[in-house]
Design brief:
Helix content is 49%, strand content 24%. It contains 7 helices and 6 strands. The chain has helices at residues 2-10, 12-20, 27-34, 38-50, 98-106, 113-123, 127-141, and strands at residues 25-26, 54-61, 67-73, 75-83, 86-93, 145-146. The strands form 2 sheets. It has a 3-stranded antiparallel sheet with strand order 1-3-2. The protein has a 3-stranded antiparallel sheet with strand order 5-4-6, with helices on one face. The chain is elongated and about 55 Å long.
Amino acid sequence: MITMILHSYYDEDKSKILEVAARPKTIPDIVDESKLSKTLTYRKVHSLLRDYLLFPVGHTLMKNRKLVTKYVALFEKLEVNMVKNDVSVRAKISKDSPHIFFKMVGDRPGSTLEEKIIRKIKHSQNEREMIRRLVKHIEKSGSDKVKLTNVD
């Protein structure tokens, strides 16, 4: 689970979206605040929804009378600590997402969220590279606390 979270927060575009969506936002709001393209934002939002790091939390009526979904990030705050080979993640769950998160876990009989995340991690081809870059960044900074940003 930690690897999947790190992978998503390491992606600069996903990280911007998650930061903007700390409070419920529509995709047009996310596009405006993150300064990302509309197409890229839609792709990344759908990816974050699949990874259970972003959740729909209701709807709002736009000026054109169109009903648009609002989304919120699972985590309001995220802190990553590394000590030698041990990685730990400390997170504050967004006040707007817990009921959705726990409902989602209960709605999937026979397959828990943890099982789905473990399957996703096993199939991730980029996790080793992402961890290698994270460790390299930590070694450069000389700190055991890391703010996840793009190192490239």
